[in-house]
Amino acid sequence: MIVRAQQFFEELGRQGHDHRLAKVTGRVRFDVVDGGSTDSWIVAIQRGDLSVSHDPGAADCTIRGDKALFDALADGRANAMSAVLRGALSCTGDVELLIAVQRVFPDPPRESPTAGGARGAP
Question: Is the pTM of this model over 0.85?
Answer without folding.
Answer: no
